[in-house]
Design goal:
It is built from 2 helices and 2 strands. The chain is of the alpha+beta class. The protein has one domain. A two-stranded antiparallel sheet has the order 1-2.
Amino acid sequence: MYLMDYYTIPMSLAGLPALSVPCGWTTPEGGRLPMPIGLQLCAPLFGEKLLLGAAHAYERATNHASARLPETGAVRA
């Protein structure tokens, strides 16, 4: 279970605001179904407004968060 949080722990320990937004899909080698990819963003201490603004701008500029795979209903870029 620890490995599930591996990339979020440094931000939490440092007290920095961070979030992840959908940024595409990849099909693992030997895999059949595509898996979502997330873009992790981090801001300076107390930079939540900047972070949320950047995430919002990215989501408006792309359609990663709203596109869906027809056969699975999952989000697709």
